[in-house]
Amino acid sequence: MAFFSGKDIGIDLGTSNILVAIKGNGIVLNEPSAIAIDKETAETLAVGHEAKDMLGKTPTNITAIRPLKDGVIAELTATGLMLKAVLKKVCRKYGIARPRVVVGVPSGITEVEERAVEESVMQAGAKEVYLIEEPMAAAIGANIDIAEPSGNIVVDIGAGTTEVAVISLGGIVISNSLRIAGDELDQDIISFVKRELDLVIGENTAEQIKKQVGCALPLMTELEMKIKGRDVTTGLPRVDKFTSTQAELAMRESIWKIVDLLKVTLEKTPPELSSDIMEKGIVLTGGGALIKNLDKLLSMETGMPVYSADAPLECVVKGTEKTLENIEKLRSVLLNKKK
Q1: For a designed S-S bond to 159, which of 182, 196, 204, 304 qualifies (C-beta 3.0 to 4.6 A apart)?
Q2: What's the pTM value of the predicted model, to 2 decimals?
């Protein structure tokens, strides 16, 4: 009998978004990692988009939160309830009972955090849970042949963590993780807008700024957008404009920390693998891969070609699905290799 059978599920349990794929069906769910809970009854009121829209707007009897922080579970109970609701929704829609589940987790995850993820998914109705490191899942999802005796490097910039991993012969040779990624860039923008424009903006606005005008190097043609917030002095709503030049300044310090993380990893990479990487280049995955000119900056600083993977936001969840499809071949990449 095959190691996995039936409709198995792959999950990218991200700080910002939770993505679910079913073996053979592709991605079937992509929603924000957010949940709203009734404090008095502990009942789940909303998950995903609906819960994200409630962040910062709830009355005292309701709590709306993002239960993951920096790529790991911050609120175990809330994460369990969120996973339960998501899996129930997917299983009901596709007629799946007690699936086997592969979950992408950060490479720097502790044993306690590993157990927390396993318990949450089991409580959500899974039959078995397997964990795979996100950079490895991202590499598989980016169509890198991880089994070959040759060096590949992946820079996975999610919402909570940036992870750089050198992969060869189906294993991670060296990896480094930094809890500076998309969320931190949003906070950089919020701080900059408050400091420079005397305007208080929310996380959703900061995220829109990052997506629309965010860049790692100045753009040939400056972009600008209107932003709404609360005036620090008057306390009244105000509209202002924000440019790509300001966005680059706001995010510069954090982006250079990501550059340094890549350089440190490359410096520790065995010379034989370095020559492979020099030839093949660096692969960017995760939402951070979409930041304008980030590939150019990394290429300038390393002297190597840098490519963004196709659909970088989906690489980890696609990697979990491909792991399910080739489980016998890829069993060695799982963190908790159950017999």
Answers
A1: 182
A2: 0.90
